[in-house]
Amino acid sequence: MLEASVIVPTRHRPRYLRVALESLATQDVRSNSYEVLVVDDGPSDATREVAEQVSRRTGARIGYVEREGVPGLNSARNTGIAAAESQFLVFVDDDIEAPRSWLRELLDGHRRHPEHLVLGGPIRVRLEGSRLRMCGREAPPITTLDHGLRDSEIELVWGANMAIDRRAFDLAGLFDPGVPYGFDEDMWERRLRDAGGRIMYVARAGLVHRRDPDDARLGRLARAAYVRGRNLRAYSQYAGRAPGLAAELRILAGCIFHIFRYRCGNGILLTAHSAGRVRECLAGRA
Fold first, then answer.
1. pTM of the shown model
2. What is the spatial order of strands in the sheet that 4-10 belongs to?
3. Could you say which of 8, 27, 178, 277 would form a disulfide bridge with 103 (CB–CB 3.0 to 4.6 Å)?
């Protein structure tokens, strides 16, 4: 029995996927103790070729699976769950880079905390080649996680670095493919906690959420932040937890103020993200 199945949902991003797979293929655990499954949400020859090339070059066990069901991240996750051989399922995004110790630390965390059915570790942003000034008061609108230097029980980890004992699906079910834009970690983990499941932060199981030099330019970061803001607002509306337009406008004003008060480039990204939320709010009211 494999110790872990690492599931990588992806869609038309072979450049990022290659970096992720190369880091996953060289973990400092026995190579025959885990598998990596690439789940292609938009089946393409380029994605398949990257998976096959990295597997041949490294000797790692890397499989390629086409997403089943409706398009979307959650369908891709569910496809990976069905295809995986291990009882310990580890989800990452296709734009991560994992240090060699990452999987070992997750497995060790699972052994230390067997009563916790979900584990996750730190997620740190790396903007490669970027000189964007950030004041440090706010994180950029890219998925991050940091709960300190010690393991601790928490309420939520993110799908960019999330390990799940298969028993958790008996309590919370699979991911909902109907959730807009795939933000189902929040709702799924809420269902798990309501059913008695527990979540553990494993402080040493960290990885990097990266943006390569092309995507780390200010214009592309701002566009990505705007799209993320729209998507997150759509998810909030779906979940019934979206604030009103007045609240969204107050946040937008605060983000604009942040740019000039702190001379902070991250304020531009926060403003773009907030503008996306306002735009989606207005679209929902139309």
1. 0.95
2. 62-66, 34-40, 4-10, 88-92, 161-165, 118-120, 199-201, 152-154
3. 27
